[in-house]
Amino acid sequence: MIDRPFADLSVRPVPFPEPAAxxxxxxxxxxxxxxxxxxxxxxxxxxYGWLDYPAVLGEDVAGEVVAVGxxxxxxxxxxRVCAYAxxxxxxxxxxxxxxxxxxxxxxxxMTARLPWDLSFTEAAVxxxxxxxxxxxLFERSQLGLDHSTLGSAPPRDEIVVIWGGATSVGxxxxxxxxxxxxxxxxxxxxxxxxxxRALGAEAVFDYRSPDVVRAITEAVGxxxxxxxxxxxxxxxxxxxxxxxxxxxxxxxxxxxxxxxYDQPRHGGLSVxxxxxxxxxxxxxxxxxxxxxxxxxxxxxxxxxSIADSPVGAVVWGEHLPVALETGGHRPVPSPRVIGSDLxxxxxxxxxxxxxxxAEKLVIALE
Length: 366
Ligand SMILES: NC(=O)c1ccc[n+]([C@@H]2O[C@H](COP(=O)([O-])OP(=O)(O)OC[C@H]3O[C@@H](n4cnc5c(N)ncnc54)[C@H](OP(=O)(O)O)[C@@H]3O)[C@@H](O)[C@H]2O)c1
What we know:
The mean pLDDT is 95. This protein is of the alpha/beta class. Strand 6 (158-163), helix 4 (168-179) and strand 7 form a beta-alpha-beta unit. Helices cover 31% and strands 20% of the residues. The protein has 2 domains: 23-125 and 333-364, Medium-chain alcohol dehydrogenases, catalytic domain (Quinone Oxidoreductase, Chain A, domain 1); 132-303, NAD(P)-binding Rossmann-like Domain (Rossmann fold), CATH 3.40.50.720. The protein has helices at 35-43, 120-123, 127-138, 168-179, 193-199, 212-220, 236-246, 271-294, 310-326, 344-353; strands at residues 23-32, 60-68, 80-84, 103-107, 111-113, 158-163, 183-187, 203-205, 224-230, 250-253, 297-300, 334-339, 359-364. Strands 1, 2, 3, 4, 5, 12 and 13 form a 7-stranded mixed beta sheet that branches. It has a 6-stranded parallel beta sheet with strand order 8-7-6-9-10-11, with helices on both faces. The protein binds NADP nicotinamide-adenine-dinucleotide phosphate (NAP). NADP nicotinamide-adenine-dinucleotide phosphate (NAP) binds next to helix 1, helix 3 and helix 4.
């Protein structure tokens, strides 16, 4: 639980989260740590101004259904599921709906049943990253790609460029774009190139190479680029350059131009925070000017947006449960278990701020 902006997480009892209509109560067996949790903790009211404190952070849960709300007939008590815990999103219950607790209320529409041989720890890496990838690729306001035949789509001769394939969002985006029939070019550190190819990318480039934008443009050749997904802080600028050179018209931005990890962890005025925010504003102005010059639409993605759009129903309700069963969607990256009690959540946030590579920090609850 976080008691006020910038506070360390603490553990204390809260009431059982009775599921409202359309919701499930889930006993959490595994919960993953996301950059979003660290960002909410260290940006105070800047990004999540609507959040009522105290609140429970944590978006990625896997566990067993223990109660079913009115109007839900797709799930029963005892089902093994993973779900996107959306408590911190606007208009939702930030206590009942946060994932860092033993019982959580989740939307049935953002929940998927798990195959018997997929562990809770493995499944907990999915929900937020999967939702964000789907929002970036399929929302009409983003790349707006065709997802009507997801999982059985014929191959298309169109490329999606996904910057940051080794991120949790990126690994899901590669698989979803492939399931929708698109070709994928991505970026990752060399140590992760084989992983990216195994997920379905046809070409992978090191994002640290000074030539990376030119190399991706050459790899595209004359093919059509359906859009570019920019993942990781600082990815927006090279992605808009790639779009300009390949005549792609849409860029989905999942991350800000600056890293929010570069600001002080605690609140109050500071030169470091002021510099970071002014860099953020200036880079956004430059970025939008470049987009205007090349006729590119670049918009910020909000992973939770699919909960209220037809995309959520398709990817969570139809695609994910089947694709997990058949191996058509793999939970990536691999989980790294950092503890077995909720007290590990703050340690997880601090560890994540130091950087992770192709792994997701997970608490495996007893
Ligand atoms: N807008 C939304 O709704 C939303 C939702 C979720 C996440 N996000 C954002 O999406 C980003 C990724 O989140 P995540 O949870 O997927 O992260 P993550 O799994 O923690 O990402 C770790 C990976 O980031 C890669 N990386 C680091 N810097 C990079 C760069 N400059 N270019 C390309 N890859 C880079 C590293 O790849 P290598 O190991 O190959 O170096 C590393 O494996 C974050 O910025 C997060 O805030 C946004």
